[in-house]
């Protein structure tokens, strides 16, 4: 774990983008340009107490304000500082979340008909980007951690074999860490990609803090990745919707990527959101790295002590199959599977603790880089109370145990019979679930979170898919934007 990033703190004391907005506010010029609230002069009075401070710096690309799509001043400098803090050659600020970064990567790397090797358990935005690009992804089935059944990066051997079978792919695209904070060593994988002459792309949405202290896993950039997308708002301190896209090396055209991002990002981006990326970087370097180190120590001490005293619940502590575990994530489950993860989510919510996500087995707690003892105590207390509650539950309450199949065996390669783009545009019709077996899917079936599609347009529907959909629905899983809220029917391609 000696790949943490070291930068000069003195270099990062300034926040040029935030300071530009402060200067804009101080000058107090009469706004005769957008936005229509005129720096907060015209706004809903009942909500001004919450919005007033932000409205005064909610600027636009007017004179004296830099342009995200052609940065030459404060934004350019802020992105350079971010690249230094995260170990990149260049960093792009994003205000559409990692979704915009993933779509931008797909459109930059792929022309219609191009193949790209994609880990099957990617976020939906990757598939949407490939659909818009007209790409033809080759899916590779992920590895599965044996205790939690969480999907992870496939072993490098499988990806190496895939590159030999499909030497014309435009890149290899994986997710690391997964939603549960499990991270694999990417060194060999990066070398395999570069030996094949293709870029290595990592969706590191949940790993913006990776590499920022020796007590957390190393970053994908430090392991040789060419493109890395990070949700700065998820694990660091920027505002919601803000992310960073990092580049390293010469395998991807920076000019092309900048051009694409200029097409898909708003021409009126939120400057307060952009500035929050700038100050999140400053906070990270000035204080956050040390806070992260202290938080990890606090969390690990409490997790170990708590785990020894739990009767019904357990907190996952790693396994030999996983190279590194994110200590800011606690994966909580029921030892005897007395209750599902969806039920645990509700039980913790009743105790005032809102988990990040739930699945059939677990809930995931996500901590910040600066957690004080008192805040951790509240979480520990809620876990103890739920553990005590479950000790009195009857075994009759146990949900039926069923092994859910989300993906093919590790390393399995699969190219849908119809491309994502073609499937999206082809005529489709509704069919009852049982009647859909053997047909090509006409929609995205998306248990959420974490937003990994069970089925994408153009994939063949099998009996395992139907059983998994029904079992998830019966357990209380949430499906995002299904064509049928009851999950009794599905769109298929005619």
Describe this structure in words.
The chain is of the alpha+beta class and 494 residues long. It has 3 domains: 10-285, Aspartate Aminotransferase, domain 2 (3-Layer(aba) Sandwich); 289-397, Aspartate Aminotransferase, domain 1 (Alpha-Beta Complex), CATH 3.90.1150; 417-493, Ornithine Decarboxylase, Chain A, domain 4, CATH 3.90.100.10. 36% of the residues lie in helices and 14% in strands. The chain has helices spanning 16-27, 48-55, 74-86, 97-109, 124-133, 156-165, 187-195, 232-235, 254-264, 271-309, 341-350, 373-390, 420-425, 433-436, 463-475; strands at residues 90-94, 115-119, 136-140, 143-144, 151-152, 172-175, 182-183, 200-203, 227-230, 243-247, 313-315, 324-325, 329-334, 357-358, 362-366, 413-414, 428-432, 489-493. It has an 8-stranded mixed sheet, sandwiched between helices. A 4-stranded antiparallel sheet has the order 11-13-15-14. A hairpin with a 6-residue loop joins β4 and β5. α1 packs across α10 (271-309), α4 (97-109) packs parallel to α5 and α10 (271-309) packs across α12. The chain is globular. The mean pLDDT is 94.
Share of helical residues = 25-40%
Gyration radius from CA atoms, angstroms: 23 Å
Strand order of the largest sheet: 1-10-9-8-6-2-3-16
CATH homology-level superfamily of the largest domain: Type I PLP-dependent aspartate aminotransferase-like (Major domain)
How much β-strand is present in the residues? Answer: 5-15%
The average pLDDT is 94
Number of strands: 18
Number of helices: 15
Taking the sheet with the most strands, its summary is:
8 strands, mixed
Poorly predicted runs of 5 or more residues: none
Q: Which CATH class of the largest domain?
A: Alpha Beta
CATH architecture identity of the largest domain: 3-Layer(aba) Sandwich
- The termini sit apart by 52 Å
Shape: globular
Counted up, domains total: 3
Domain Orn/Lys/Arg decarboxylase C-terminal: 414-476
Cofactor: pyridoxal 5'-phosphate
Family: Belongs to the Orn/Lys/Arg decarboxylase class-I family.
Keywords: Coiled coil, Decarboxylase, Lyase, Pyridoxal phosphate
